[in-house]
């Protein structure tokens, strides 16, 4: 399946055969299984859970992890899958991110062998769904100020607190919950969602990410055995390592939404006639399309560079911040330009642009706002932290 944007800039030439295989599989899945239903699902705020085992069968869940039934794919291959899924809808790239880059990565990086063996194969096969509880109602940009507590009670841990904007929590089988212990050290806990005291409620009234699920979570005396703690995580470096995995996926994913908007604008430019000619024949329109295309391809080259760095083990948090900031910012601008070129029809569900634009506003906020990533880069450039 050749896209219009691919005919001008041959990015595929920079990929391996294996990477192109993952890309084409994800593109086919998005085209055949997500696109036919996504407008209705977005309109009805419906998460189509039946697609989860199908995603698992393609190997997409935790695909960048090794062992425990995971595919062990490279970073670029994972990025390309994120790109193709988000070209259909941000909600489905978000699902793969929450499942694989957050919940599964937390277990893979920080869990005990028993925790890994119990949960990772089930999560990879889509037999279980995971979530990642870090953000709280007072704000997500300052996780050090979290109020969720984990206290020792004999040989057990007891968790109390509230989390917000937790993806998949109401349908999850297991949650990775981050809380401060009695020494104010951030610890991670593996919490089966059937545990008494765990409650998740989907957030209503969303005008973005409507085909996805985000929840409020209440932890009311959630009692866990000692072995529920993630042994490899102490301090904020534990959750941050997982957030960087998710942010990396966004670098690629947001550009998938941008590509979808650019493709819609290109198609319309060739067919919509004004003043006796297609609008694509007008210099102003061609200038806008060219600018959109250039920013899209620059973003893709940056994503590819970051992927190669990640595969060498050389990718830094500041580099990820540069990618996330650029991809989402440029994707939003491309979506806005595409909406304008589509005219009044651009605000209808006949085209995917307004849906992508609404979704990207959420993507802009989660896994670090623009401002947080600017401050990360500012610290890297100056050596001075300006977070407070």
UniProtKB/TrEMBL annotation:
Known EC number: 1.3.8.6
Superkingdom classification of source: Bacteria
Cofactors required: FAD
Domain Acyl-CoA dehydrogenase/oxidase N-terminal: from-to ranges: 16-127
UniProt KW Oxidoreductase keyword: yes
Annotated Acyl-CoA dehydrogenase/oxidase C-terminal domain residues: 240-381
UniProt-listed PROSITE patterns: ACYL_COA_DH_1
Pfam families: Acyl-CoA_dh_1, Acyl-CoA_dh_M, Acyl-CoA_dh_N
One BP term from GO: fatty-acyl-CoA biosynthetic process
GO molecular function terms attached to this record: fatty-acyl-CoA binding; flavin adenine dinucleotide binding; glutaryl-CoA dehydrogenase activity
Alphabetical UniProt keywords: FAD, Flavoprotein, Oxidoreductase, Transit peptide
Top EC group: oxidoreductase
Residues annotated as transmembrane: none
SUPFAM superfamilies assigned to the protein according to its UniProt record, in alphabetical order: Acyl-CoA dehydrogenase C-terminal domain-like (SSF47203), Acyl-CoA dehydrogenase NM domain-like (SSF56645)
Pathway: Amino-acid metabolism; tryptophan metabolism; Amino-acid metabolism; lysine degradation
Catalysis: reaction(s): glutaryl-CoA + oxidized [electron-transfer flavoprotein] + 2 H(+) = (2E)-butenoyl-CoA + reduced [electron-transfer flavoprotein] + CO2
InterPro entries: Acyl-CoA_DH_CS, Acyl-CoA_Oxase/DH_mid-dom, Acyl-CoA_Oxase/DH_mid-dom_sf, AcylCo_DH-like_C, AcylCo_DH/oxidase_C, AcylCoA_DH/ox_N, AcylCoA_DH/ox_N_sf, AcylCoA_DH/oxidase_NM_dom_sf
Domain Acyl-CoA oxidase/dehydrogenase middle, residue spans: 131-222
Family: Belongs to the acyl-CoA dehydrogenase family.
Name of the protein described by the UniProt record: glutaryl-CoA dehydrogenase (ETF)
């Amino acid at each position: 399946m050749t896209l219009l944007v691919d005919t001008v800039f041959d990015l595929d030439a920079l990929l391996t055969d294996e990477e192109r295989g993952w890309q084409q599989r994800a593109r086919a899945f998005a085209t055949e299984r997500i696109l036919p239903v996504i407008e209705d699902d977005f309109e009805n705020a419906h998460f189509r859970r039946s697609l989860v085992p199908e995603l698992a069968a393609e190997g997409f869940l935790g695909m960048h992890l090794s062992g425990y039934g995971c595919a062990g794919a490279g970073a670029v291959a994972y990025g390309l899958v994120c790109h193709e899924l988000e070209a259909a809808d941000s909600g489905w790239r978000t699902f793969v991110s929450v499942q694989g880059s957050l919940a599964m990565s937390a277990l893979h990086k920080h869990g005990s062998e028993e925790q890994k063996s119990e949960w990772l194969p089930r999560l990879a096969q889509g037999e279980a769904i995971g979530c990642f509880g870090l953000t709280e109602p007072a704000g997500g940009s300052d996780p050090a100020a979290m109020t969720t507590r984990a206290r020792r009670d004999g040989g057990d841990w007891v968790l109390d607190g509230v989390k917000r904007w937790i993806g998949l929590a109401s349908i999850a089988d297991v949650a990775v919950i981050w809380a401060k212990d009695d020494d104010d050290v951030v610890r991670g806990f593996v919490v089966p969602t059937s545990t008494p005291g765990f409650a998740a409620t989907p957030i209503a009234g969303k005008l973005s990410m409507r085909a996805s699920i985000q929840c409020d979570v209440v932890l009311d005396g959630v009692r866990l055995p000692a072995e529920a703690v993630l042994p490899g995580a102490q301090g904020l470096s534990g959750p941050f390592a997982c957030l960087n995995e998710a942010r990396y996926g966004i670098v690629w994913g947001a550009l998938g939404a941008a590509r979808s908007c650019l493709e819609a604008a290109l198609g319309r430019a060739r067919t919509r006639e004004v003043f006796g000619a297609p609008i694509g024949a007008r210099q102003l329109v061609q200038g806008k399309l060219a600018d959109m295309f250039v920013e899209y391809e620059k973003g893709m080259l940056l994503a590819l560079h970051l992927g190669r760095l990640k595969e060498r083990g050389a990718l830094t948090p500041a580099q990820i911040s540069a990618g996330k900031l650029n991809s989402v910012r440029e994707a939003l601008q491309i979506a806005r330009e595409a909406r304008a070129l589509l005219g009044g029809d651009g605000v209808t569900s006949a085209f995917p642009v307004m849906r992508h634009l609404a979704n990207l506003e959420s993507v802009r906020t989660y896994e670090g706002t623009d401002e947080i990533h600017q401050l990360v880069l500012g610290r890297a450039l100056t050596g001075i932290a300006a977070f407070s």
